[in-house]
Amino acid sequence: MATLKEMIENVSEVVLDKSISATSITRKLNQAVALCAQTTLLSYLESSGVVLTNPSTSYIEIPETWNFDRNLYAASVVNGDDIVFYSSMALLKREHPKADVSTDTGDVQAITVHKGRLFYYPRPTSVVEIQCQFYEKPALLVKSSDIPSCIPEALHEGILEQYALWKCYAAIEDGTEGFKVNTSYYKKEFKEALESLDDFVECGQSTSSPSRVG
Fold this sequence. Notes:
With about 210 residues, the chain is α+β, with helices and mostly antiparallel strands. The chain is built from 5 helices and 7 strands, in the order ααββββαβββαα. The protein has 2 domains: about 5-40 and about 140-200, no CATH class; about 45-135, no CATH class. It has a 7-stranded mixed β-sheet, with no helix packed on it.
């Protein structure tokens, strides 16, 4: 498995340009990790958290401690029933047309992420704990010994280093007339590796039911 130090060294050995600093390479490697997390459901990033409903509103701010990134895919009342999760407000409103303007009260039946907040319908008349499952943001690579554990080990070089090389050469060849050979090559290598990421993590990905996605 590749540490941050090893990946920086690998990229530097290929680029051989002193204007490309270790800090710059680190930033590009972290951009690659974030991009992978945004394009693929990485099982190592699966997480969960609990929120408390408020009888006076249908919205809850997503707790900062969740480190929430994407794909809230399931919810249930703590020690109670499952709640139907919808991937968008539009889909929730197909089942509950006036949910976003309603003040209906009762047991929570539906939940979605809307405008960066959790929305639930209807409103319970007392505080209720809701357990949610989602994907959190990947940890940044900071220390030289840090490892991008959310990415399959076999793809550390194929994805992260190729992305860094692509972006490094894009800066180096900026202003170059004609075909940018190295930029194009590493961009192609990165995109091919990114396409293979799903094959590595396809098994065990947690997602919401197809009937609740739209």
